[in-house]
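TICKET: design request
STATUS: open
ATTACHED STRUCTURE:
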């Protein structure tokens, strides 16, 4: 048995025109009731038409029908069916009515989207409304919409109760209208009405051979009118079965008992519908809740678009992101387009793949070849070869849809494909797979497409979904404010509404767009509002407590182990990781998604830069455990994953491997025993906490000796320099990363230079730092040195040349840096050198040409740089050279033509540049050349025609440039890519 919809005694409102009387757990049939015209107000006609004596308890579509047809979804349409035209009623014509109803039916009611037969039960004029719905659905503006096509394809039968197919003489009777202006729908009720004639003609054109029609006619007059409303001749429909009942127009659809002929007639027809459709019925899945339909509309359209071209689409996302719900929404939308469909639920949890295959056989209707019965696991294992042969033959000959929810492993996916032989089946068959990592599917690309689930933060839908669960259906801000005001009025606590709103929005922000979080938190805190025994003030504190527990990744019910549905769902992703991946996941969760943000290349260097580190990072990304921003490469992690990771670390108690709170850091730094700590951070502390705790070391002139031999990550973000000077590492052999960002010191703390195994040193924003010690050369394993915004730094030590493993040197915005040492040429592994806005830099050392691994050189904004060394062309691996804003640069060295790997050359704003060397034509891989506002540039060398891969050339503002006629062909070819050429 399903669910009697009972927020109102006469149905659940889905939209202004849609009401739901009954919703089963599994839908096999949809029955839609449509009322007729009304002499008075018609807002209740959708249920009073069918209710004996006009009482809700006698509403038989809601009471009798679900008992006899427990798998039938029962709905009713409501429309303005008033026969009188007033300022508010009786104003819509039949054409507009059909357009409005068909949109609400498929969008809000989702009628016809479950792949099950649809039956219209129509009283009086409601039959003409049903016809108009069909006609409207076949009009160009609707006929191309998939959901409308689904509805029309799923219609099976029409049951007309006294429908005036040819009008009624009563429509012109003064007794019927009883004064007032005639509404447009009443005109369609008239005999020989041309619009009704048009409707009947178009309906005949669009009706389908598979549809069935049944007519129930009245035989008694209405005493008030002294005639029948719809004469038998008007109610007849040529190809329909016909039954005349001893009843009037009003009573014909209000049976007095379940044995009444009018009720028996309908139930007989519904049984016929089920018998006809039992074989071809697609496997039904639970209907997603109504609130999911709107939020998934855009994603549904995107995936359905991908399925037009791809056989398989993978829905990839973290736990709780809505992969399964989206898969169900898409399945229900498109399953009726296929001859057979199958939804394989939670494949990962099944004990064997054989169990999954048996489910697939059953849903496809493939029987046991010997007994003719359904496939069973026992006989499948005994006759596996025969069953798989039948399965492959079936897939080869039928258009099938298969949804594989949570496939679990690459092996499961590959075996399913092999057992079905889907890729050798029909080209119009499709598969949808949900999983947490793209790695499982991408081997089969490009035949498999990747769709990453979008979270809801920033869309407004997060607030809608959350408020739906908090306030049980309320979505808009106006509505939930009204709900809160009413709630607080119980105990005169209206002044608290502002506090409730703050916590409400804080929880939404904390959920960070994750649908499962919004559902869990919304349902939980909403339960307090519905508890009449909880005073408003206590309820507010319970909300705040729930928010804190949520941020700490604790179970809301206090259960040990955080076994709540949300955290359990997220924990699955972590538990599936190997040791190396777990360590990296926890590093990011604890240190690199708070105040500090790092690009993926920096993280690779922190971890050591080995090829295996790159594989690990890619695996974590493919599993949706963090994302890499496409624009700046910064690694981000969802808040709930971060909180889960920190909760896992906290679960180790006093033996925590990573510490970041003041309480835990105090314990580690004050300990006289050796600790197993691998990461320690003061980065997220406020300044007062740092000063209060670490400042005591300065006052007492005692050093802070850290006894952490496994310490690899040390974050001292914005810790005062005199405090850092008191830190001593007893054992620094494991140290990989030190962050001293924002440190207020003139020289780097001594303990840093003893960390000879260090991979990355971050000194960003140390604005008082004037120089680096020659001891910097001790860090021979250093891969990344970040000195951005060290505004007082004047030079680098000669020993910098000892850092032969250095891959990235970032000196951006070191405005006082005047020169680089010659020893920089020893950095043969340097791939990135950033000198952006080093405004005091006048030249580069000749040795820079020895940086044979350099791929990116950024000199943007070095406005006093006049030239590049003649041998700069030796940088044969350089792919990007940015000289934007080098105003005093007058020429490029002829050797630039040797930079055969160069793809981007930016010379924008080089105001003194007069010409380009002829050798520039040798840059065959150059795709982008920016000469914007090179105001002194007078000509381009003829060799520029050799730049065959050039796709962007910006000459805007080159006021002195004149192109010779010899380059006219080149300009014509480059026309789509030229910007700003005026000569």
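STATUS: resolved
RESOLUTION: sequence designed for all positions
ATTACHED SEQUENCE:
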């Amino acid at each position: 048995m399903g669910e009697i919809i009972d927020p109102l005694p006469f149905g659940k409102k889905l939209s202004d025109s849609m009401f739901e009387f009954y919703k089963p757990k599994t839908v096999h049939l949809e029955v839609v009731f449509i009322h007729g015209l009304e002499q008075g107000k018609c807002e209740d006609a959708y249920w009073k038409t069918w209710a004996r004596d006009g009482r809700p308890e006698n509403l038989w579509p809601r009471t009798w029908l679900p008992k006899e047809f427990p798998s039938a979804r029962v709905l009713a349409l409501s429309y303005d069916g008033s026969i009188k035209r007033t300022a508010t009623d009786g104003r819509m014509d039949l054409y507009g009515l059909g357009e409005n109803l068909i949109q609400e039916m498929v969008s809000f009611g989702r009628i016809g989207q479950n792949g099950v037969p649809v039956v219209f039960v129509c009283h009086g004029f409601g039959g003409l409304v049903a016809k108009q719905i069909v006609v409207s659905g076949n009009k160009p503006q609707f006929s191309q919409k998939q959901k409308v096509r689904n509805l029309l394809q799923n219609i099976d039968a029409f049951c007309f109760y006294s429908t005036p197919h040819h009008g009624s003489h009563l429509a012109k009777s003064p007794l019927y209208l009883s004064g007032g202006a005639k509404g447009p729908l009443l005109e369609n009720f008239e005999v020989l009405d041309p619009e009704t004639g048009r409707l009947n003609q178009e309906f005949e054109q669009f009706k389908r051979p598979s549809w069935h029609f049944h007519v129930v006619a009245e035989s008694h007059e209405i005493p008030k009118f002294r005639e029948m409303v719809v004469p038998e001749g008007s109610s007849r429909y040529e190809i329909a079965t016909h039954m005349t009942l001893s009843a009037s127009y009003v009573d014909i659809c209000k049976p007095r008992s379940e044995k009444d002929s009018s009720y028996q007639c309908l139930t007989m027809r519904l049984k016929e519908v089920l018998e006809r459709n039992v074989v071809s019925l697609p496997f039904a899945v639970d209907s997603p809740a109504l609130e999911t339909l709107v939020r998934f509309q855009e994603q549904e359209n995107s995936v359905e678009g991908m399925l037009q071209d791809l056989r398989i689409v993978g829905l990839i996302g973290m736990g709780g992101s809505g992969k399964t719900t989206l898969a169900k929404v898409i399945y229900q939308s498109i399953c009726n387009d296929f001859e057979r469909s199958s939804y394989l639920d939670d494949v990962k949890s099944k004990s064997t793949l054989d169990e999954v295959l048996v489910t697939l056989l059953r849903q496809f209707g493939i029987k046991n070849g010997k007994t003719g019965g359904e496939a069973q696991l026992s006989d499948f294992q005994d006759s596996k070869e025969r069953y798989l042969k039948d399965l492959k033959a079936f897939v080869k000959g039928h258009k099938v849809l298969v949804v594989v929810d949570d496939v679990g492993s690459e092996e499961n996916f590959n075996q399913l494909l092999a057992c079905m032989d889907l890729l050798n089946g029909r080209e119009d068959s499709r598969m949808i797979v949900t999983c947490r990592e793209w790695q499982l599917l991408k081997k089969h690309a490009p035949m498999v497409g990747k769709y990453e689930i979008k979270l809801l933060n920033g869309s407004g839908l997060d607030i809608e979904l959350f408020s739906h669960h908090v306030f049980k259906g309320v979505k808009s801000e106006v509505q939930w404010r009204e709900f809160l005001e009413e709630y607080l009025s119980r105990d005169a606590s209206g002044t608290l509404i502002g506090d409730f709103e703050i916590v409400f929005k804080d929880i939404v922000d904390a959920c960070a767009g994750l649908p499962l979080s919004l559902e869990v938190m919304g349902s939980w805190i909403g339960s307090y509002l519905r508890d009449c025994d909880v005073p408003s003030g206590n309820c507010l504190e319970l909300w705040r407590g729930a928010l804190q527990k949520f941020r700490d990744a604790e179970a809301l019910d206090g259960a040990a182990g955080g076994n709540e549905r949300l955290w359990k769902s997220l924990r699955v992703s972590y538990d599936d990781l190997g040791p190396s991946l777990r360590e990296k996941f926890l590093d990011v969760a604890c240190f690199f998604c708070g105040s500090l943000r790092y690009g993926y290349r920096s993280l690779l260097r922190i971890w050591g830069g080995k090829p295996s580190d790159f594989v690990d990072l890619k695996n974590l990304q493919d599993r949706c455990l963090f994302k890499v921003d496409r624009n700046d490469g910064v690694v981000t992690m969802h808040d709930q994953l971060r909180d889960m990771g920190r909760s896992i670390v906290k679960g180790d108690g006093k033996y925590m491997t990573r510490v970041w709170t003041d309480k835990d850091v105090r314990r580690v730094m004050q300990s006289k025993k050796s600790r197993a700590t691998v990461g320690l951070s003061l980065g997220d502390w406020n300044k007062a906490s740092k000063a209060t705790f670490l400042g005591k070391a300065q006052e007492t002139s005692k050093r802070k000796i850290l006894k952490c031999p496994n310490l690899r990550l040390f974050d001292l973000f914005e810790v005062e320099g005199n405090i850092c000077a008191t830190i001593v590492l007893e054992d620094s052999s494991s140290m990989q990363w030190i962050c001293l960002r924002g440190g207020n010191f003139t020289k780097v703390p001594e303990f840093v230079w003893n960390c000879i195994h260090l991979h990355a040193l971050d000194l960003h924003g140390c604005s008082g730092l004037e120089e680096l010690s020659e001891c910097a050369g001790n860090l021979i394993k250093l891969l990344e040195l970040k000195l951005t915004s060290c505004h007082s730094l004047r030079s680098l030590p000669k020993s910098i040349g000892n850092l032969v493993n250095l891959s990235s040197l970032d000196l951006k915005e070191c405005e006082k840096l005047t020169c680089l040492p010659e020893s920089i040429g020893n950095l043969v592994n340097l791939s990135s050198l950033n000198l952006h806005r080093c405004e005091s830099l006048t030249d580069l050392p000749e040795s820079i040409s020895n940086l044979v691994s350099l791929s990116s050189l950024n000199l943007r904004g070095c406005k006093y740089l006049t030239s590049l060394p003649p041998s700069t062309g030796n940088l044969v691996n350089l792919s990007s050279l940015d000289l934007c804003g080098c105003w005093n640069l007058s020429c490029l060295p002829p050797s630039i033509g040797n930079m055969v790997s160069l793809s981007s050359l930016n010379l924008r704003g080089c105001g003194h540049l007069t010409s380009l060397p002829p050798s520039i034509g040798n840059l065959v891989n150059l795709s982008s050349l920016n000469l914007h506002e090179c105001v002194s540039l007078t000509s381009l060398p003829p060799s520029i025609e050799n730049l065959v891969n050039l796709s962007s050339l910006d000459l805007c503002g080159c006021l002195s440039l004149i192109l010779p006629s010899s380059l006219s062909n080149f300009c014509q070819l480059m026309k789509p890519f030229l910007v700003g050429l005026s000569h």
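CLOSING REMARK: The chain has 33 helices and 34 strands. Confidence is low (pLDDT under 50) at residues 1-7, 559-563.
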